Structure formats: C-alpha cells, structure tokens
Amino acid sequence: MKTKLIFVLSALGVVAALLSAYIFGIEQKSQPPVFSPAPNPYQNGVYANGIVESDQASGENINLYPEVAGRVVRILVREGQRVSAGTPLLTIDDSVQKATVEQQKFQSEAARAALEELRAQPRPEVFEVSRAQMELAASNLKMVRDQYAKQKQSYDLEPKSVSRDALDTAENGLKVAQSNLEVARRQYELTRAGAWVYDVRSQERQAAALDKAWQASAALLAKYTLRAPADGVVLSISATAGGYVSAQGSYESYTQALNPAVVMGTPQDYLAVRCYIDEILVNRLPSPDHLAAQMFLRGTDVRIPLEFVRMQPYLSPKIQLSDQRQERVDLRVLPVIFRFPKKDGVNIYPGQLVDVYVGSR
Asked: If we measure between CA atoms, which residue out of 333, 337, 350, 332 comes closest to residue 291?
C-alpha cells in the first residue's frame, strides 16, 4: 500500500514539474514604453539638463527678500497671480515702527512750531509792553528831574531851605531814573529787533534734522510692506501669515533652508530654459550665431524648438537641480539660456526639469 502511494505522489510531482516548466517557459511579451526617450535631433547634438524659468533679460527669477525682519501679518496675493509694479505682496508687523514714526512726526512738528515762533518775534503784545515800560521810565525820569530842579533852585536861593543830604538824594534819584530809562530803551530796541539770527539758524537746523529723521523713519515703515519690483507673475510664496521672515528669507520646514519670501517671474507669454552644459562638452558647442536647440518634456513625446538668448560666459560648479546648495559635485557647467513661446494645451511651469539637445542650424 505504501509503495503504491509513493508511486502516485512521484507521478504527481513529475506532472507538476512538467506543468511548471511549460508555464514558465512561455515567452512573455514586453510592455511597450510609456513614452519614448528623448532622441537626439542633431547629428552632433550636445545633451544638457535644463530647468524652465521666467524669461528675464538678465539673471534668473526675481527672488524677493524683505529688508526688515518680523512676523508676517497678511499675504496679499496668491501664487500664479499677475501683479504690476508696486503691488503689495505681504505685510510685516509694523506696530513698533508705526509708533516711532508718530513720535518723530510730533517732534518734527514741535520743532517747526518753535521755528515759526522765533521768526514771528516780536509778538505785538510783548512789543507794546516793552514800549510802555520805556514810556514809564521816561515819565519817572521827568518827575525825578523836576523834583531835583525844584530842590536845587531852592537850595541855590536859600541853602538853609533844603538840606544837603536831601539834595544829594534827589540827585542820586535822578541818576537812577536816567539809568532805568536807558535800560528800558535798550530792552525796547532788543524786543523790536526780534529773535537773534543765530537762534533762528540753530532752530532751523534742529527742525531740519528732526524732519529728516521722521522721513527716514517713514521710509523704513514703508519697507514693512513687500511690494512687487516690476510687472510679473507670482511664482512662489514661502512666507506664511503668522510666520517669521527676515532679510535671509523664510525658513522652509521640509528642506530646512532659507528660501525667498516671494519668487516672481515675468508675464509668461514666453518662458526661458536654462541649460547646463558639462565642461567637457563646451568645446563641441557651435558659435552663438548658429546655436539651435530642442526641448523635450520628460514623460511625454512633446518636443519644442528653442530660441537662443544668451549664455553666461562663466563656468560654475554644477549643482544638482534640487535647490540644495550643499549638493556640489566635482564638475563645472556653462549656463546657456534659450526661450520659447508658451503654447496652449502644453502644461509647462517654471522650475520644471527638461531634457535639451543643443546643435547647429
């Protein structure tokens, strides 16, 4: 019985082995590629990695950093929005600076008022008081002089009618009255002359200094609003309402790097492609007058001819296109910039990586 069972199991094993060999021996048809790899359209074309960016006359995208640091209060635009030059993009908490501007404004106004007060001197009321004091001194002098003249005449007629001491006292009173009149007259002239020119000049400079301080403080207050420097499109906003920004940008929690608070580009009727040509291939590039290039969108069969714009004649260390400055490799590249008109139905955005072949036309 056991022998029969062993033969049966052996037979079943042989059949299973033959069936498995047949199944696994069937040739599987390969799956067609999702998209064709970018072909080289030129006989001696040079391949380059490219990144799409806004079409700039020089430089790259517009990276905006606030000139002051603080907490973001409001984000006033959205990504993809077209803005004109001067459009507010975001605001930073300016409560302290606003109070400082108000304080310096009041100080400037007070200094201006003090300057106007000096220029308006003498006040009519003060001038009238000074003149009245001079007239009073003149009247006192006349009264004292008359009294002295009477006593002197009496003394001359009869020395015993007036004591010598009384006559001397009257004479001294006359001299005091004359001095009082002279003081009142000089005070009147001083009042009529108005403010001293040096006091006016000093107050003018103080008012001008406070006015400049107020203007500088107001100019600093305006920097708490980040504005668009030119007409363009908002490409990226890394700042967040309630977050902190500084002149180094805003902290990005994913890459743990400081990014621009706002990235802008030009209106996207045209887009640019920045190609990085390896240094070992630079000598194979044709002259700029004969440069031609085609761009291939990764994952598609879309190809777009490119128009040569310029090249940056400076080879820099290659940076892997992941926006990480620490990812340097021992290779230098030459940036060459092309551009192309944006087409309907083709989704292309700044920051997109593309394949580019550069050849001769």
From this structure: 337
